[in-house]
Amino acid sequence: MNLGAAVAVAASMLLTGCGPGSANASEADLPATGPDTRTTETHPEHGERHTMWVTATAYCSRPQETDGDPFIAAWNERLDPKVKSIAVSRDLLEEGLHHRSSVWIEIDGKETGPYLVLDKMNKRWKHRIDVYFGVDLKAALEFGKKRVRISWKTADSKPTG
User: Fold this and answer.
1) What is residue 20's three-state secondary structure?
2) Are 125 and 92 a contacting pair, CB within 8 Å?
């Protein structure tokens, strides 16, 4: 890889959250996220569930992004690139998301999921999820950073029907 390509990849990693320096990415350009955006809704298929706007970035299982085994998550669970999963900022745990919670992600009006909460993010992050892309760095970089709406059910959510 030539120097120019290496610089371009490094810059992309810093801006998208897929890299060690992603803490420097600016949050000022995104609309409001966090508990102030939380609502409860009734979904025709999923029943009563909670929703919140968060910032979404992407991450990969790469040795450069971890202190140890890149496939071991914060709850000491092994990540599988074939399983849709996310890491959540620790403040979202207080909002009702827990280890192995099912989460749906709405991006530009299209909902995908469920994703399992299998990892926790560094304490410095707030109102954020990190979508797991296995070892696919290119897909993680293409995902970038965006404002998304997440939905989840808690134990006290009422079933419909």
Assistant:
1) coil
2) no
Res. 78 pLDDT band, cuts 50 70 90: very high
pLDDT number for residue 34: 79
Q: Is 65 helix (H, G, I), strand (E, B) or coil?
A: helix
Residue spans of the domains in the chain: they are 3-152
Which of left, alpha, beta for 96 (phi over 0: left; psi -120 to 50: alpha)?
left
CATH tag for 3-152 (out of 2.40.40.10, 3.40.50.970, 3.40.50.300, 3.90.950.20): 2.40.40.10
Does pLDDT of 20 surpass 90?
A: no
How many whole angstroms separate alpha carbon 99 and alpha carbon 117?
5
Residue 7, pLDDT > 70, answer no
Any idea what the Cα angle at residue 75 is, between residues 70 and 78, rounded to 5°?
45
> pTM to 2 decimals?
0.76
What's the CA gap between 51 and 150, in Å, rounded? Answer: 5
DSSP code, position 78: B
By CB atoms closer than 10 A (0-12, 13-18, 19+), residue 76 is exposed
